[in-house]
Design brief:
Helices cover about 30% and strands about 30% of the residues. By secondary structure, the protein is an alpha/beta fold.
Length: about 180
């Protein structure tokens, strides 16, 4: 993956609330494409190995949620987190994390992650295939700036975190803002 890469065309399978439906489960399936999320917009996308996992839940998601307004003020339309988890898990994790600002994208089959070249085996942890930790500033479907944790490999014995932190993304956005 590198700067200038056009992101893949993928459809995400999500569940959204439909106020026309009553009862305990007022949700319908909605299929959202990468074009709907990324076309004609500048967004920050960050990916992580899994919902409810320690680094993702204690540092990465809270970091982006707490710095959402700062990121938006630096010329970003939206902040997305994506994980190889289904829509039900992603929604429950969003509620558990008390997230109100960043948007969760479920990549249940790992289609987007695979096409981004970031699908890795995490069989050593019992996770199956998951995403390597990365982040990107994406403008109109194209990677403006790519961030990736070092040491990407299948069954990596460590979980590096730092390159893809909200603080690191903000540093880039502050410098980029001077040239926009």
């Amino acid at each position: 993956m590198k700067d200038g890469f056009k992101i893949p065309d993928v459809t995400f399978h999500t569940r959204v609330r439909d106020h026309m439906i009553g009862g305990d489960n007022p949700f319908i399936w909605r299929h959202i494409t990468t074009e709907e999320l990324f076309k004609d917009r500048r967004v920050v996308l960050f990916s992580l190995p899994g919902a409810f996992t320690p680094t993702c839940s204690t540092m990465q998601v809270p970091g982006f949620e707490n710095r959402y307004d700062t990121i938006k003020a630096l010329g970003v339309d939206e902040v997305y987190v994506i994980s190889v988890n289904d829509t039900f898990v992603m929604r429950k994790w969003m509620i558990d994390q008390k997230v109100e600002k960043i948007k969760f994208i479920p990549d249940g089959n790992g289609d987007f992650t695979a096409k981004m070249g970031m699908l890795v085996d995490k069989f050593n942890l019992g996770f199956g295939q998951r995403s390597w930790r990365y982040a990107a500033v994406i403008e109109n479907m194209e990677v403006e700036k790519w961030f990736e944790e070092p040491g990407r490999e299948d069954d990596c014995p460590t979980d590096p975190y730092g390159e893809t932190s909200a603080e690191n993304i903000i540093k880039y956005l502050e410098i980029a803002a001077e040239y926009r």
